[in-house]
Amino acid sequence: MVSLVLVTRQGCHLCDQALNLLRELGFEPELADVDADDRLYDLYDWRVPVILLDDRVIAEGNITRDQLAKALKPA
Prior knowledge:
75 residues; Glutaredoxin; 4 strands; 24% strand
């Protein structure tokens, strides 16, 4: 089972865009609020949105559809 997590925060338009792109590509990620978790905050505070695939960063910041499609393409 693959773990897909979107590290986000309230009021983040880039986070909203990343979530919409993921949904357009057929993915429903687990959402993790960077401001509600000290560990996530320490790692990703100024990097959100961050998309983690099996705990590995595959995209962050201003994420594009092409970038996501390539990163999430089955091997």
